[in-house]
Amino acid sequence: MPAHRRAPAPEAAPGQTSSRELGRRRFMGYLIAAPTLAVAAGGAWELLTPDDASAAIPSPPQPSDAYDLGDLQNDAALPTAYLIKIVINEDGTASFAMPRAEVGQGITTTVAMMIAEELDLPLDKVTVSLADARPELMLNQLTGGSNSVRSLYIPVRTAAALARQQLLLTASKQLNVPVEQLTTAGGNILTPTGKALSYGSLAVPAASSTLTSTSVLVKPTSKFTLLGTPQNRIDALDIVTGRKQFAMDLEVSPDAKPTMVARPPTINGKPKKVNNLAAVLALPGVTDVAMITYGVAIRAETFGQCIDAIQVIDVDWAGGTVDGQSDESVEKKLKAAQLPLAVPNLLTKSVDTEITFAFASNSPLEPDCAIADIKGGKGEIWSSLKVPIWAKQNIEEELGMAPGSVTVHVAQGGGSFGRHLFHDVALEAAEASKKMGKPVKLMWTRTDDFRQGRTHPMCVAKVRATYALGNVISYEQRHTSVRTDFTHGLGEVLTATAAKSPLVGNYSFAQSIFLLSQSSPYNFGVTTQLLNEVDLGYNTGSMRNIYSPNTVTAEELVVDELAKRMGKDRVDFRRSFLKDERLKAVLEKAADKGEWGRSLPDGVFQGIALHGEYRGAICTVLELDCRPETVNRKIRDAVTGPRVTRATVVVDVGLALNPRGLEAQMIGGFNDGIAMALTSSLHIKDGIPLEGSWDNYFYTRQWNTPPEMNVVIMPPTTGEPGGAGELAVAPSMAAAACAYAQSIGRIPTYFPINHGTLGFEPYPLEPSSPNSPTDGLTNRI
Questions:
Q1: How far apart are alpha carbons 583 and 685 in whole angstroms?
Q2: Is the pTM for the entire model greater than 0.70?
Q3: In the chain, what are the domains?
């Protein structure tokens, strides 16, 4: 059954958890004859019967309707789920080393709520830390795809429920009271007479000396008292008071000195020779200089001294992998590699469009950083890593070290956007430490992040929708992209799991991701969405929501154009063609709360867009101010343009475990989306991005985020939590794009819309980083 049309999951029977039967319907995917790898996500061998939709030709289900990327990740995690454990301490607290990375999305809070709920323990008595790399977890230690809560929901609750059960059994023996007469509350076991035993007093007696399997009941959702209620983050106080510890804050060794890297003037260039080594070593504070794979590492007493050394170092560089390329040359190659459209428009009318989406940076606000201490054939690393097992194995292999010789600690991350799926900085730190024979605290500069980090690849969407007599007859989408790099641990998950699925078989990483994530929500007759990727040598990554922002934006723009040509309101048109009830419900709620169709000043336009992914449904309605006085407003060193002034996001994630955290995720994803539509992109010239800092890269700023925003969380619909972290990005980008299209009277052909305006003076390519910051007092008037 398609993802959003499933009936709510039944309440779990005693000793069981709710399950989702996929059935045995076999879906068909297509490998397309093309110069590079290509795939079709459309069609089925056994067709489901879609819901009736007025004036709609039913579309066959697509693979992700039945089995999506999150389902695959859940299946990959199941074999080692039993290794997830919760510890009850003698002080009555509970501890859990979470095999996922906290990078600001708030999953430590949600997981703590799960534990507190099942244990009947106050939330402030639950401690959630981040687990070191644990190879025995195999495919169960990867953070990505908005899957952490989905994959941990049952294992964590089961472990917590088992701890509660064991405490009750132990108390029953000590008190000689039948376990049925005991209750739990506030971290205590209570008797009918009011006598209490604390969890802490039972922690040691309840321990088991052997590995024992047993069954356990988890709470039904109807008995939840904490889950489903809005809670502040458990680390909120540490964040606002500056006590929060990130990798660069850790004091693991006084000898772990600041280290930075002088980098080439092109992507993936390598050092051949340092021409002034003695002069650099003579600079104040500098202790060591070592050539590493993609640069020259400089270790000093302070980061400022590292930057000073970068300003004067003279290096001979080998060429990079994308030398001479530009936005224009990449776009030309992508359009040449497009797969042809199959459905002619001889007997029907059609909407045809082709849209280019620029490169974008997936740099988080926290610069990439890692601490490494490699010596004597062993080592330790501290960094924010979303695939720590793969990082550990790869670092050992790259450094020629024995398996198991490196311990990898996962640190809290200040954002990720998919960046920390790759462990480039940890590998560099380890390489520098080994060559110097000393511990290092290595940090990338902002310029490193933007120019040498990972990017969301440029892509081109080509769409044709044919229509006649009030029906959409066919919908074709050709997504042609610079290759997305999936060689991080997610590739291992796909290799191990996807081949078992009749939905994706032995497709490559990119094709598998595309098949498992892309699905049109509309009954548009014959529907195909095809992927073709071209390897041009760029360092790319699976930035938030991967393919969805671009594919959804292209589709929703075409939906608006179809509505216009058929003379229908854009909301009414969507209502007529939507496949499932959950998306219809969020559409209706968003149109109501966002006051769709209300009177607006001339030059202000509404946009609306829908999306379904991660077993969730979402709709965004926004208002875009395109009046000249807004578009042309002057802000120093910035590109302004249209501004979103009002927004409504309505979301259904099945079961919202922490509505306050979910609201924050929606606001963050919304701002990501409108940035991708309006302002944020990388400009490639001579093989490298011109952007060199957040001053250059126009992510949504305070002056561009809507002053009025409303997030509506729908009541529970499925009984299980869906993914949320990335869910709001695609429909928010699409809604902003649709509003802009209304303002210009046509479908835009390039995003973000302000890409054509450079708005800053680029930093030079050498030195690779700007001058050291000052204290601001030297030139004070």
A1: 42
A2: yes
A3: 63-223 (3.30.365.10), 248-321+368-443 (3.30.365.10), 328-361+454-751 (3.30.365.10)
